[in-house]
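Q: Focus on the shape:
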Amino acid sequence: MVSWKQKVGLGPIELIGLDIGTAWVKLVQLRRDNNGYVGTKIAVEPIEADGSDEPPAEVRVARAVRQCLKQAGVNAHAVCAVCGPEVMVRTFRFPHLPAEALGQAVLLEAQQVCPLDITTSVVDYRLVQPPDPSAKEDDAASEGPASKQGVLVVAPNETIQRQVQQARAGSAKVALVDVEGLALLNCVSAFEHREHHTSIAVVNVGKTYTNVAVLGSDGLPFIRDLPTAANDIIASIAQTTGNDPNTVEQAVADPEKATTLGLDMPAALRESCRGLVTSISETLRYYGLQEGADPIRRILLCGGFALVGEFVQMLDHALTEEVVVFNPFAEIPWVGDRTGLEWAQRVGPVLAVATGLAMRTT
């Protein structure tokens, strides 16, 4: 079983971030030196059929993974990720708890907050130290020096194994399995400098799910995966305009195509994204109601729809918080080939999860 932070016993190994999505496989390789991270390899490959007789999904995924590895020319161990409603990320805080009792306390906490069957799931956790010295002092004063806080993850064995098998079918060697929302925060927190007592919020609009992840000044994450994403937006526009979904998808990515079709894309996006906007707003509002939650000043947007300027403008107008596009490769120096640099700068927002995964260590 490969779990969220399980060590594979291989010693120091080279890792790549391998983000296996619904429509694309994304690969990122980084190198860390004394000055931080530098980018060395990226690859992006669509998960699609190459003929009229469409092969099974697992075959297409394996082919895309294999092609990504070939494009990048790497043979490193991969860090993958899972997401969705069956994957739970929750925080915990235990006052005055002996270290030897922590594992059992986390398991009991997971049983209390998780509707999943714990006996068929992986339960993992990580302790988190508050990065803000004043927050640490306040915590120590209120709960004593032995207090423990952290994040626990519960994911069904079946979900983890499916992801591992997909990667291995494409000849990838899996070292770790992470959670998409945590990978996003791992990436964002490496580059974003926030104001004192404010939260970092990132929204990743994928094909099937939209990840909403928030990191407070106490170092604890808040993760929610929303079931409304790109597929729903495209389907809504297609139904409203009477166009084929594939045609709409092309028009969303290409303003000239939208003009040719006579689509008023800003209006179409405003109408089709009402549900997503409401879900994001409610999720952030719920976070704000949590005890000790810091205010959110702006939202970092990534994923495929972050490349659609009209969508970014619509979301920025619809939400209370400022919305800005997050491209990790605007911050990461590049030491690979020139083509890779140009590609990374162009599609960087799509690579946020893969970049966060590449930052993991064994």
About this structure: The CA atoms of residues 39 and 171 lie 23 Å apart. The chain has 13 helices and 13 strands. Residues 1-11, 135-144 have pLDDT under 50 and may be disordered.
